[in-house]
Amino acid sequence: MDTYSILREFADSWMLLLLTLVFTGVIFWAFRPGSRAIHKDVAASIFRNDDKPAIDTADRPNEARK
Q: 20 to 30 A Cα–Cα from 4, which one of 22, 31, 35, 52?
């Protein structure tokens, strides 16, 4: 048997099983109990240093035309 056939057989069987198990493991890890607080914290992190809303350029007509 040549190398290509051996690697192809390995990829079609065991590697497919391994990658499927890794994928399901990542999904279960992301939705594990107790991770909701972590996900909410990460989702709100981009707003953490916001003190006020950004100024719209339509409110400043002189600078919008430059």
A: 22
Tell me the pLDDT tens digit for each residue of 12-54.
889 999 999 999 999 999 999 989 999 999 998 888 877 776 6
The ranges assigned to domains in the chain are: 3-64
Cα separations in angstroms, 26 against 7, 11, 22, 50, 63: 26, 20, 6, 32, 49
Sequence-distant (6+) residues with CB within 8 A of 58 are: 64
| Total residues belonging to the chain | 66
**Model pTM above 0.85:** no
Instruction: Give the integer Cα–Cα distance in Å for 19 and 23.
Output: 6
